[in-house]
Structure formats: C-alpha cells, structure tokens
Known about the structure:
370 residues, alpha+beta, Creatine Amidinohydrolase, Chain A, domain 1, Creatine Amidinohydrolase, 2 domains, six-stranded mixed sheet, globular
Amino acid sequence: MxxxxxxxxxxxxVRKFMKQNKLDAVMLTKFNNFAWFTCxxxxxxxxxxxxxxxxxxxxxxxxxxxxxxxxxxxxxEEEIKGQGFIVKKFNWWEDAEKLKFxxxxxxxxxxxxxxxxxxxxxxxxxFSKLRFQLNGGEIKKYKWLGRKAGxxxxxxxxxxxxxxxxxxxxxxxxxxxxxxxxxxxxLLMAAxxxxxxYRHPIPTDKKVEKIMMVVLCARKWGLIxxxxxxxxxxxxxxxxxxxxNAVVKVxxxxxxxxxxxxxxxxxxxxxxxxxxxxxxxxxWTLHHQGGATGYAGRExxxxxxxxxxxxxxxAFAWNPSISGTKCEDTIIVRKNKIEFITPTPGWxxxxxxxxxxxxxxxxxxxxxxx
Length: 370
C-alpha cells in the first residue's frame, strides 16, 4: 500500500467517524492518534507523555496542523510533509492563540478531541477503535519493528552475565533499540526473587545470580511491540520447569484462540481453564493478561467480561505469568492464521499442543558451564 493510499484511507475513516458521531471536526493531540493519522508521524517531545506538542484538526474537507513556533517548522518538514496540511503557527508564549485558531477553524461546529482541550467533547475512547485493524502498510512496518526488537532482545540476553545489574541490562537493550530509531516504552527487569515478588519489576541495582527476566515494549511509527524472555544460569529446577511449561501452555491457548470473530471474553475463559488445568488456577489474578495492541501498549486488556471481538489484521500481545516466569510475544491475527511478529532467532523453543494445533513458544535460555 502506498503512502498516498494509506493517507486517503485514514481520511475517509475519520470523516466517516465524524458523520456517525455528528461531528464537524476532530482534533488529535495524543501521540498514538497523531502517528496513526499521519502514517507514522511523531509529535512527541516528552517521551513519558501520551500527549504530543502539536495538534491536528480534520474537517469535512481540510486538514490543519496547529503548532507553536518551536514545533511548527520541524513538524511540517519532517512529519507531515506532502500530506496536504494547512499550518497554523502561534508564538510559544501565546498559548491562548491555539484556542483562537481552533475557533476560527471550527466556528460554531461540533468538535471532538482526544484530550478534552478547551472543554470540547472528548472522543478518545470511540476514536481508538479506528486504529484496531491494521492496513498493509502498517503491517509491513510492524513486522519490521517486531524483527528488530526480537533480534535486539537476543543480542542483549546472550550478553548477560552473572553480576549484571537490572539497570545494566536495561541500558544495553535501550542502546540496541536506539540504533534503529526505536524507542523503548517499557523496560522491566527482574533478577532472581524479584521475578516472583513483582509483576511490574522496574529496573534496580539488583545483580543477577541465577535468573533474569527481560520485558520489553518498543515503539516506532507509533506502533508498539511487546515481548518477554528469561535467561537462566545453570540447570533449570524441576519447579521452574513445571511453571514455565504451564505458562507457555496458557500463552498458547491465548494466541491460538485469537481468531477473527471470536469474543475476547471467550478467549479469556479458555485461558483461565488452562491455568487451572496446569495446576495454577489463581495465578491469573496476580497480573493482567494482556490484550489488543498496535498504537498503544494495550489498546484494551482482555477480561472475563470483555465485549470486544477479534478482528482481521488486529494485533495482540498476551502476557500470561506464573510466579517466577512469564511468556509474551506480539501477534497479528490474519484471516486464516496468527502471525508472530517478534521472533528471537536462535532462541530455544517449546512445542505446545492445544487441541489439534501446535505452536512453538519461547523456552528459558539456559546458559551452561557457569
């Protein structure tokens, strides 16, 4: 799919959304919405914020970029060049001019925003659904990102040595990603007992002695992939082997059940049953299990009462965990198959059977001779 075709496709989607929701215009400021609509554009300055430094407004027949004089030049030249935006620029010390531009563009019409700016209607929850189904251009970029993230994970995990701190491993992984212009949005590291104690182990100075869990979410063009791998020094205990065999079984149930038209709550119920069948019935209560992904780390989380339905060309990142281990990759649900897009070449794999289907899932990387 060409960039021109993707731009037109998204313009039609937004204008159809406007008509369905009785809106005369839509303003987008959140990073993921800006990236989606501009086919990979970047409006961030602060990495840790969901909101960008510039906004775009889409009306029935025009598109506008609203930015202060700090951001207008770079944004128009590097992020939206050739996309037909009309640039409205104001001085950085005159923030009130942004609202003035909005009123000039929208006039007495109804404006929906993704951040509630100026007291206008917040449509973010509804609008996010436009991002769920990926087009051909997005899938091509997403698979590139998944391959790069997976290879970075392998390179770093194979470098880990006893005595490396969680902070050191985080730094090594971030360095690998930034080489390719990829931003790590989540880096969770757990050495030894921290894997069992904490489901969201932000990195510390803790040094690894026996086992390290590496959790990554990585972003480029607004798209985010997620994956988790574990490295173990010396033989894996029978207890850990039992737990990891169980978690990859649950993970396989999640992934293989993610087929077009299937209700998320039904997938979640199957995974709960798998937790129970493997002897770890309550472990799902200790952490969320992941869900749909794409332009957000999780577009929504899978729950027992979820009303969402799996769509063709929708991405998911399920992340089941059992105290001491975890399994996670990013997939795209295609018409007749699921496609894992975060492969880790050379990683040991486990074959898992679910019903009549088989799938290879990541084992724990055992480093011997230490």
